[in-house]
Amino acid sequence: MKGCCAMKKTIALVAAGVLATFVLAKTTNVSSYVTTLWSQTKAAAKQSVPTKFELDRIRHEVASLDQDLNQMIRPIAESKVLVDRLRKDVAKGQENLAEQKEVLLAATNAVKGGKKELQYGDKTYTADQVKAKIAIDFSAYQRLEANLGAQKKLLESKEATLKAAQEQLVTVMSKKKEYEVRLAQLEAENEINQVAATGTDLKIDSTRAATIEQALRELEDKISADRAQIEMKNGIIAANGIPLNQPNAAPALDLDAIRAHLQGTTEPKTASNK
Protein backbone atom coordinates (compact mmCIF):
# COMPACT_ATOMS: atom_id res chain seq x y z
CA MET A 1 0.00 0.00 0.00
CA LYS A 2 2.86 2.35 0.89
CA GLY A 3 4.62 1.41 -2.37
CA CYS A 4 1.51 2.22 -4.37
CA CYS A 5 1.14 5.62 -2.69
CA ALA A 6 4.80 6.32 -3.28
CA MET A 7 4.45 5.44 -6.97
CA LYS A 8 1.42 7.73 -7.32
CA LYS A 9 3.35 10.50 -5.62
CA THR A 10 6.29 9.89 -7.97
CA ILE A 11 4.09 10.02 -11.07
CA ALA A 12 2.51 13.25 -9.84
CA LEU A 13 5.95 14.70 -9.17
CA VAL A 14 7.21 13.78 -12.63
CA ALA A 15 4.07 15.17 -14.29
CA ALA A 16 4.41 18.42 -12.35
CA GLY A 17 8.05 18.62 -13.30
CA VAL A 18 7.33 18.04 -16.98
CA LEU A 19 4.58 20.68 -16.93
CA ALA A 20 6.84 23.16 -15.18
CA THR A 21 9.57 22.42 -17.70
CA PHE A 22 7.21 23.01 -20.62
CA VAL A 23 5.92 26.29 -19.19
CA LEU A 24 9.40 27.49 -18.37
CA ALA A 25 10.65 26.63 -21.84
CA LYS A 26 7.77 28.52 -23.44
CA THR A 27 8.10 31.62 -21.28
CA THR A 28 11.85 32.00 -20.87
CA ASN A 29 13.31 29.89 -23.69
CA VAL A 30 16.39 29.31 -21.51
CA SER A 31 17.71 25.81 -22.19
CA SER A 32 19.90 25.70 -19.09
CA TYR A 33 16.89 26.18 -16.82
CA VAL A 34 15.01 23.44 -18.62
CA THR A 35 17.94 21.03 -18.43
CA THR A 36 18.54 21.68 -14.74
CA LEU A 37 14.88 21.33 -13.81
CA TRP A 38 14.52 18.12 -15.81
CA SER A 39 17.63 16.67 -14.16
CA GLN A 40 16.34 17.53 -10.69
CA THR A 41 12.93 16.06 -11.51
CA LYS A 42 14.46 12.78 -12.67
CA ALA A 43 16.66 12.60 -9.56
CA ALA A 44 13.69 13.23 -7.27
CA ALA A 45 11.60 10.64 -9.06
CA LYS A 46 14.37 8.05 -8.81
CA GLN A 47 14.87 8.71 -5.10
CA SER A 48 11.16 8.26 -4.40
CA VAL A 49 10.98 4.80 -6.05
CA PRO A 50 10.47 2.13 -3.33
CA THR A 51 13.42 -0.21 -2.80
CA LYS A 52 11.23 -3.30 -3.22
CA PHE A 53 9.99 -2.04 -6.58
CA GLU A 54 13.55 -1.36 -7.74
CA LEU A 55 14.64 -4.86 -6.65
CA ASP A 56 11.77 -6.39 -8.61
CA ARG A 57 12.67 -4.30 -11.65
CA ILE A 58 16.32 -5.38 -11.56
CA ARG A 59 15.28 -9.02 -11.05
CA HIS A 60 13.16 -8.75 -14.20
CA GLU A 61 16.12 -7.28 -16.09
CA VAL A 62 18.43 -10.08 -14.91
CA ALA A 63 15.86 -12.69 -15.96
CA SER A 64 15.67 -11.00 -19.38
CA LEU A 65 19.35 -11.84 -19.88
CA ASP A 66 18.20 -15.40 -20.60
CA GLN A 67 16.61 -14.11 -23.81
CA ASP A 68 19.86 -12.39 -24.74
CA LEU A 69 21.75 -15.61 -24.07
CA ASN A 70 19.34 -17.62 -26.22
CA GLN A 71 19.76 -15.12 -29.04
CA MET A 72 23.55 -15.46 -28.74
CA ILE A 73 23.66 -19.24 -28.50
CA ARG A 74 21.98 -20.01 -31.86
CA PRO A 75 24.40 -17.92 -34.02
CA ILE A 76 27.34 -19.33 -32.06
CA ALA A 77 26.13 -22.88 -32.71
CA GLU A 78 25.73 -22.14 -36.44
CA SER A 79 29.18 -20.52 -36.52
CA LYS A 80 30.69 -23.58 -34.83
CA VAL A 81 29.12 -25.87 -37.46
CA LEU A 82 30.55 -23.67 -40.22
CA VAL A 83 34.01 -23.68 -38.64
CA ASP A 84 33.96 -27.46 -38.27
CA ARG A 85 32.96 -27.86 -41.93
CA LEU A 86 35.70 -25.44 -43.04
CA ARG A 87 38.27 -27.37 -41.03
CA LYS A 88 37.25 -30.59 -42.75
CA ASP A 89 37.36 -28.90 -46.17
CA VAL A 90 40.80 -27.46 -45.48
CA ALA A 91 42.08 -30.82 -44.26
CA LYS A 92 40.66 -32.56 -47.35
CA GLY A 93 42.10 -29.85 -49.64
CA GLN A 94 45.53 -30.21 -48.07
CA GLU A 95 45.35 -33.98 -48.55
CA ASN A 96 44.35 -33.60 -52.27
CA LEU A 97 47.00 -30.96 -52.81
CA ALA A 98 49.68 -33.20 -51.33
CA GLU A 99 48.62 -36.09 -53.59
CA GLN A 100 48.64 -33.93 -56.76
CA LYS A 101 51.98 -32.44 -55.76
CA GLU A 102 53.49 -35.91 -55.45
CA VAL A 103 52.10 -36.99 -58.86
CA LEU A 104 53.27 -33.82 -60.63
CA LEU A 105 56.75 -34.05 -59.14
CA ALA A 106 57.07 -37.68 -60.24
CA ALA A 107 55.87 -36.86 -63.80
CA THR A 108 58.15 -33.81 -64.03
CA ASN A 109 61.13 -35.85 -62.91
CA ALA A 110 60.25 -38.58 -65.40
CA VAL A 111 60.07 -36.11 -68.31
CA LYS A 112 63.30 -34.44 -67.26
CA GLY A 113 64.93 -37.91 -67.26
CA GLY A 114 65.15 -37.67 -71.05
CA LYS A 115 62.83 -40.52 -71.99
CA LYS A 116 60.96 -40.15 -75.26
CA GLU A 117 58.03 -42.28 -74.18
CA LEU A 118 56.43 -42.77 -70.76
CA GLN A 119 53.91 -45.38 -69.70
CA TYR A 120 50.97 -44.60 -67.44
CA GLY A 121 48.44 -47.31 -66.68
CA ASP A 122 48.27 -49.64 -69.69
CA LYS A 123 49.13 -46.97 -72.27
CA THR A 124 52.28 -45.37 -73.54
CA TYR A 125 52.56 -41.61 -74.06
CA THR A 126 55.20 -39.43 -75.67
CA ALA A 127 57.18 -36.98 -73.59
CA ASP A 128 55.38 -34.05 -75.23
CA GLN A 129 51.97 -35.52 -74.33
CA VAL A 130 53.08 -35.94 -70.74
CA LYS A 131 54.39 -32.34 -70.69
CA ALA A 132 51.04 -31.07 -71.92
CA LYS A 133 49.28 -33.08 -69.27
CA ILE A 134 51.66 -31.76 -66.62
CA ALA A 135 50.88 -28.18 -67.69
CA ILE A 136 47.12 -28.76 -67.41
CA ASP A 137 47.37 -30.53 -64.06
CA PHE A 138 49.76 -27.88 -62.73
CA SER A 139 47.21 -25.16 -63.55
CA ALA A 140 44.57 -27.16 -61.65
CA TYR A 141 47.07 -27.58 -58.83
CA GLN A 142 47.62 -23.83 -58.65
CA ARG A 143 43.88 -23.17 -58.59
CA LEU A 144 43.46 -25.72 -55.80
CA GLU A 145 46.38 -24.15 -53.94
CA ALA A 146 44.84 -20.68 -54.23
CA ASN A 147 41.43 -21.97 -53.18
CA LEU A 148 42.98 -23.73 -50.23
CA GLY A 149 44.77 -20.53 -49.19
CA ALA A 150 41.48 -18.62 -49.35
CA GLN A 151 39.76 -21.33 -47.29
CA LYS A 152 42.51 -21.14 -44.68
CA LYS A 153 42.09 -17.37 -44.38
CA LEU A 154 38.32 -17.76 -44.15
CA LEU A 155 38.78 -20.45 -41.51
CA GLU A 156 41.08 -18.21 -39.47
CA SER A 157 38.55 -15.37 -39.66
CA LYS A 158 35.62 -17.61 -38.69
CA GLU A 159 37.62 -19.15 -35.83
CA ALA A 160 38.46 -15.69 -34.49
CA THR A 161 34.79 -14.66 -34.74
CA LEU A 162 33.65 -17.86 -33.04
CA LYS A 163 36.19 -17.44 -30.25
CA ALA A 164 35.12 -13.83 -29.64
CA ALA A 165 31.43 -14.83 -29.60
CA GLN A 166 32.10 -17.71 -27.19
CA GLU A 167 34.06 -15.43 -24.88
CA GLN A 168 31.23 -12.90 -24.99
CA LEU A 169 28.73 -15.66 -24.19
CA VAL A 170 30.81 -16.79 -21.22
CA THR A 171 31.09 -13.17 -20.05
CA VAL A 172 27.33 -12.63 -20.21
CA MET A 173 26.65 -15.92 -18.40
CA SER A 174 29.21 -15.02 -15.74
CA LYS A 175 27.72 -11.54 -15.36
CA LYS A 176 24.24 -13.00 -15.02
CA LYS A 177 25.39 -15.23 -12.15
CA GLU A 178 27.20 -12.29 -10.57
CA TYR A 179 24.08 -10.12 -10.84
CA GLU A 180 21.94 -12.86 -9.31
CA VAL A 181 24.31 -13.14 -6.32
CA ARG A 182 24.49 -9.37 -5.84
CA LEU A 183 20.72 -9.06 -6.15
CA ALA A 184 20.21 -11.80 -3.55
CA GLN A 185 22.59 -10.00 -1.18
CA LEU A 186 20.75 -6.70 -1.68
CA GLU A 187 17.40 -8.40 -1.07
CA ALA A 188 18.74 -9.91 2.16
CA GLU A 189 20.09 -6.54 3.30
CA ASN A 190 16.81 -4.87 2.44
CA GLU A 191 14.90 -7.47 4.48
CA ILE A 192 17.22 -6.82 7.42
CA ASN A 193 16.55 -3.10 7.07
CA GLN A 194 12.81 -3.74 6.92
CA VAL A 195 12.96 -5.84 10.09
CA ALA A 196 15.02 -3.19 11.85
CA ALA A 197 12.61 -0.47 10.75
CA THR A 198 9.65 -2.50 11.94
CA GLY A 199 11.37 -3.01 15.30
CA THR A 200 11.93 0.70 15.82
CA ASP A 201 8.38 1.54 14.79
CA LEU A 202 6.79 -1.22 16.86
CA LYS A 203 4.20 0.16 19.29
CA ILE A 204 2.69 -1.86 22.14
CA ASP A 205 -0.80 -1.14 23.42
CA SER A 206 -0.14 0.38 26.87
CA THR A 207 -3.64 -0.51 28.07
CA ARG A 208 -3.14 -4.17 27.23
CA ALA A 209 0.30 -4.16 28.81
CA ALA A 210 -1.10 -2.61 32.01
CA THR A 211 -3.84 -5.26 32.13
CA ILE A 212 -1.31 -8.06 31.78
CA GLU A 213 0.90 -6.51 34.46
CA GLN A 214 -2.05 -6.24 36.89
CA ALA A 215 -3.14 -9.82 36.21
CA LEU A 216 0.36 -11.12 36.86
CA ARG A 217 0.64 -9.22 40.15
CA GLU A 218 -2.73 -10.48 41.35
CA LEU A 219 -1.76 -14.04 40.47
CA GLU A 220 1.55 -13.67 42.30
CA ASP A 221 -0.26 -12.32 45.39
CA LYS A 222 -2.78 -15.17 45.28
CA ILE A 223 -0.06 -17.82 45.07
CA SER A 224 1.84 -16.14 47.95
CA ALA A 225 -1.35 -16.06 50.09
CA ASP A 226 -2.01 -19.74 49.34
CA ARG A 227 1.52 -20.61 50.47
CA ALA A 228 1.18 -18.54 53.66
CA GLN A 229 -2.14 -20.21 54.43
CA ILE A 230 -0.61 -23.66 54.04
CA GLU A 231 2.33 -22.72 56.28
CA MET A 232 -0.02 -21.37 58.95
CA LYS A 233 -2.11 -24.54 58.91
CA ASN A 234 0.99 -26.65 59.24
CA GLY A 235 2.16 -24.50 62.19
CA ILE A 236 -1.15 -24.92 64.10
CA ILE A 237 -1.13 -28.65 63.59
CA ALA A 238 2.42 -28.84 64.88
CA ALA A 239 1.56 -26.81 68.02
CA ASN A 240 -1.46 -28.94 69.00
CA GLY A 241 0.11 -32.25 68.22
CA ILE A 242 2.42 -34.32 70.45
CA PRO A 243 5.82 -34.68 68.88
CA LEU A 244 6.31 -38.36 69.54
CA ASN A 245 9.42 -38.30 67.41
CA GLN A 246 11.12 -35.99 70.00
CA PRO A 247 10.94 -37.96 73.32
CA ASN A 248 13.65 -35.97 75.17
CA ALA A 249 12.83 -32.57 73.82
CA ALA A 250 10.92 -31.32 76.99
CA PRO A 251 13.06 -29.81 79.86
CA ALA A 252 13.19 -31.60 83.28
CA LEU A 253 10.59 -30.34 85.84
CA ASP A 254 12.02 -29.31 89.33
CA LEU A 255 9.06 -29.92 91.68
CA ASP A 256 11.06 -28.92 94.81
CA ALA A 257 11.85 -25.52 93.35
CA ILE A 258 8.20 -24.95 92.53
CA ARG A 259 7.03 -25.86 96.06
CA ALA A 260 9.69 -23.65 97.68
CA HIS A 261 8.57 -20.75 95.61
CA LEU A 262 4.93 -21.32 96.47
CA GLN A 263 5.63 -21.63 100.22
CA GLY A 264 7.64 -18.44 100.21
CA THR A 265 10.81 -20.06 101.39
CA THR A 266 14.07 -18.98 99.88
CA GLU A 267 15.59 -22.39 99.83
CA PRO A 268 13.90 -25.54 99.03
CA LYS A 269 13.74 -28.16 101.77
CA THR A 270 16.17 -30.92 101.43
CA ALA A 271 15.86 -34.49 102.53
CA SER A 272 17.64 -33.70 105.89
CA ASN A 273 15.16 -31.04 107.03
CA LYS A 274 11.93 -32.75 106.01
Can you put this structure into words, describing what you see?
There is one protein chain. Helix 1 runs antiparallel to helix 2 (about 30-45) and helix 3 runs antiparallel to helix 4. The model has no long low-confidence stretch (mean pLDDT about 75). This protein has a two-stranded antiparallel ribbon with strand order 1-2. A hairpin with a 2-residue loop joins strand 1 and strand 2. The longest helix has about 80 residues, at about 125-200. It is rod-shaped and about 185 Å long. The protein has 2 domains: about 1-50; about 50-200, Helix Hairpins, CATH 1.10.287. The chain has 6 helices and 2 strands, in the order H-H-H-E-E-H-H-H. The chain has helices at about 1-30, 30-45, 50-110, 125-200, 205-240, 255-265; strands at about 115-120, 125. With about 270 residues, the chain is mostly helical.
Quick tags:
3% strand; rod-shaped; 2 domains; Helix Hairpins; 274 residues; two-stranded antiparallel sheet; mainly alpha
